[in-house]
Amino acid sequence: MNKQPIGLFELWQETVDALTREGLLLCTVGADGKPNVMTIGWMSAGVIWGRPVVTVLVRPSRHSYGLLEQVGEFTVNVLPPQFDEAVQYCGGASGRDGDKFAHTSLTPAPAQKVRAPIVEQGVIHYECRVVHKNDVAPATLTPEIVAGAYPQGNFHRLYFGELLAVYAASDASEQLRSLSP
Ligand SMILES: Cc1cc2nc3c(=O)[nH]c(=O)nc-3n(C[C@H](O)[C@H](O)[C@H](O)COP(=O)(O)O)c2cc1C
Q1: Model confidence over 41-89: pLDDT tens digits?
Q2: DSSP track, 160-175
Q3: Is the pTM of this model over 0.85?
Q4: Is 93 near ligand 1, meaning CB less than 6 Å away?
Q5: Dihedral (Cα; 20, 107, 34, 124), 10-degree rounding
Q6: Nearest residue CA, atom 8 of ligand 1?
Q7: Domains of the chain, each with CATH number or no CATH
Q8: How many Å lie between the centroid of ligand 1 and the Cα of residue 109?
């Protein structure tokens, strides 16, 4: 599929719509070059330190967490609705137990600026380099969020990724819209 560079936040509304509908796919890679993919439902974006930054939250129990600690680079991929089943699978199975790419119709493809791959079937791609990380601090988090999101602890680590490249299929918005339920 032919993908072209877009403004860094040009398709942000479409991205947030997909984030809150089925989730997005976070790709990481280990020091051994083995890629992994997991579903994320939380992410934010803006400008910090004079740079465009997206922040993803990953719990220490995830295989992706270990990989991000090894290689501080990641991609975020927006998939059209026909891949909902695969996105769901990547949000339940762990790369620790098997190759999720091999178990789905998803294919890793080389990214432009980072070692982590993109998901070929995505229609919007964000490539990021970790410039800061920070653990959720329960003592300074609103108690109802601690109770609701962390009944078992496993507090997220926030990875702040500087956006190095953003590109999309020319018909990304249509693909994301047309098949939506
Ligand atoms: C819709 C959805 C959103 C999710 N969002 C996150 C998230 O933002 N952060 C996180 O750590 N886990 C999240 N998860 C859970 C992980 O995707 C799941 O635990 C996955 O199996 C981890 O894969 P890994 O062990 O290969 O890294 C989400 C799961 C689903 C289904």
Answers
A1: 999 999 999 999 999 999 999 999 999 999 999 999 999 999 999 999 9
A2: EEEEEEEEEETTHHHH
A3: yes
A4: yes
A5: -40
A6: 40
A7: 3-169 (2.30.110.10)
A8: 21
